[in-house]
Write a structure and sequence with these properties.
Layout (H helix, E strand, L loop, with lengths): L30 H17 L2 H8 L4 H18 L14
């Protein structure tokens, strides 16, 4: 028998569960993770030169710019469900 609550299987697939009395939360209602993420973004925006980071991330050549545009187009088409590789039913993944 497994007495470790961290290794216990959830009772139902969509159920949020607290583990080990630590108040950990999983799923769409994870407000602590959202707060932590937002705090991290705010800290980064205040303490880093985001304009310089944007310039550094810009394509270095026309060929790199074309590659980036093709990658963005491919991502957009998959997001719209237009990809030939994507399953017809998104639940089939």
């Amino acid at each position: 028998m497994n007495d470790d609550p961290k290794k216990a299987a959830p009772k139902s697939p969509g159920q949020q569960q607290q583990q080990g009395g630590q108040g950990q939360q999983y799923g769409e209602g994870n407000y602590k993770a959202t707060r932590d993420y937002n705090d991290g973004v705010k800290d980064h925006m205040q303490n880093h030169d985001v304009e310089k980071e944007a310039r550094d991330a810009a394509p270095k050549s026309d060929a790199e710019a074309r590659d980036m545009e093709r990658a963005e187009d491919a991502g957009r088409s998959r997001a719209k469900g237009e990809s030939k590789d994507a399953p017809e039913n998104p639940g089939e993944r």
